[in-house]
Amino acid sequence: MYPSDYRYTKEHEWIKVSGDTGTIGITDYAQHELGDVVFVELPAAGTKITTGDVFGTIESVKAVSEIYAPVSGEVIEANAALTAAPETVNSDPHGAAWLIKIKLANPAEVSSLMDAAAYQAFVSEKEASA
Amino acid sequence: MTSPTTAQLRKTALNAEHRRLKAKMVNFGGWDMPVEYSGIVSEHMATRTAAGLFDVSHMGEIEVFGEDALALVQHVTCNDASRLAIGQAQYSGLMTPQGTFVDDLLVHKISDKHYFLCVNAGTQDQDFEHILANNHTGAQIENAGARYSQLAIQGPKALAILQALTPVPLNSVPYYHFTFGDVDGVDCLIARTGYTGEDGFEIYFPPDQSEKLWNDLMEAGSGVGMIPCGLGARNTLRLEASMCLYGHEIDDTTTPYEAGLGWICKPNKGEFLGRDALVRQKEKGLERTLVGFEMQDRLIARDACGVCAEGKAIGRVTSGSPAPFLKKNIGMAYVPPVFRAPGTEISVEIRGKQAPARIVPMPFYKRAK
Predict the structure, then answer these.
(1) Could you tell me which residues are beta bridge partners of residue B55?
(2) Domain ranges of chain B
(3) Which residues of B touch A39 (CB under 8 A)?
(4) Which residue of chain B comes nearest to A59, CA vs CA?
(5) Which of A79, A96, A120, B141 could form a disulfide with A92 if both were Cys (CB 3.0 to 4.6 A apart)?
(6) Which residues of chain A are under the pLDDT cut of 70?
């Protein structure tokens, strides 16, 4: 379910690192909790984001959810396709519905995030208590 | 995120069925209720185009009996229940002495000596206490919620689906009328009412028959596109149809006139709680009125967002949401009457920005007859 080469946060974002570039999205658990996504608001290229800060907003029919930066860096690109097709966040959260690509400020930061097994255990516990 | 469920939450007789269907559950007015099954958008669209089945057993029922039943109903509600024929229902308001809402409700006349009130889930106990405290007649009152489950079958195919399970000729039950009859071997109160803007029925029956009725209705309807629907779609459907929700458009600080519900306010029927305050408000004119608006860009207004016009704060959003059928972002808000005209430009404060919106006529959605 959760790609083994991604890292994860407790706020249900994922990041995939390639060199000094990170691609960030929200997890399948997060899209399921949100329900039908109808609006995505993302920062412009050049925006600096800081670990733990809000960098964007995803809205479903029912709810507004803020998206937190898993690590610090500078936005290279936001996924413009989500403006016209926000529902991609529901159908392909770990792939086509990536949110932003950033140039990592400190690539070592990523290692402090959960790996796939740890994140799977984290959400299994949440689902069991629901 | 959904609230964790706890042991104190009240459950309908279909709780296990909702969990088996993997519905997302939320605490709604103290009840553990399904907010969505397959998704709000698909549930909303199914109800507009085919049918939706809703467990609304959390709704409360209060029954009023006796020679003075009508006198008590007339005293505590603002609509004129004396106009009801046996087998007819009306939308009404349970009033405070200030002419504000204790709750909104449906009043069903079963006989001259028996009225059946359907009230909101979160307010049913205080509604009952309020009616009890204001009963200066010989009428008897029963807080009867535990004796009923309620299912809503809504949408253009609702009649045909329900008809397959009952000998009652449903076409002979007009809108806002009801009858008693057998559905699937169960004695039901069958009302042609709803909270979606579609044709449909709400049926009331003993809770121990809930699983049987739910499953047999699903079997009758699934072949023609009926799906189970949760409170999420119930909310977007009622908002598109511009129906008020207690705690949002109406509460104990708002009057029927402010909420655009002057049509349920009948001061000429004689004395009732809040009558004098309502007559005074009507003479004096309103300070605020409920309006509908459409967002002019992609931003979505949400409940409690501030509303501005001409550079100043003028009110607050009571309900705001994407409208899945209309494919627009809509909402309702209280504003001074000077801003009520359709076409008036307003703005809604969303995450610190003023997002443009425009007043539009209500209802946003009206089904083709």
Answers:
(1) B151
(2) 15-57+148-240, 60-144, 287-360
(3) 298-300, 322
(4) B300
(5) A96
(6) 130
Contact criterion met (CB < 8 Å) for B232 and A39: no
Task: Tell me which chain B residues have a C-beta less than 8 angstroms from the C-beta of A62.
Answer: 35-36, 40, 232, 321
CATH tag for B15-57+148-240 (out of 3.30.200.210, 3.10.290.10, 3.30.1360.120, 1.10.10.10): 3.30.1360.120
Task: Tell me which amino acid residue B135 is.
Answer: N
pLDDT score at B3: 45
Is B73 within 8 Å of B115 (Cβ atoms)?
Answer: yes
Interface test with B, best of A29, A32, A36 (most B CBs within 10 A): A36
Q: Which one is the CATH code of B60-144: 3.40.50.200, 3.30.300.20, 3.30.70.1400, 3.40.50.2300?
A: 3.30.70.1400
Query: If one looks up domain B287-360 in CATH, what number appears?
Result: 2.40.30.110
Output b/e per residue, A40-53; b: 16+ Cβ within 10 A: bbbbeeeeebebee
Amino acid at B35: V
Give the residue numbers in B contacting A (CB under 8 Å), as ranges. Answer: 1-2, 4-5, 24-25, 35-36, 39-42, 232, 236, 298-300, 302, 321-322, 324, 351
Tokens describing residue B110: 């079963």
- Contact between A98 and A31 under an 8 Å Cβ cutoff? The reply is no
Please state whether the predicted TM-score (pTM) of the whole model is above 0.90. Answer: yes
pLDDT score at B7: 58
Run of H or E including B40: helix B40-49
Q: What is the pLDDT of residues B55-92, one digit of tens each?
A: 999 999 999 999 999 999 999 999 999 999 999 999 99
Q: Which residues of A touch B350 (CB under 8 A)?
A: none
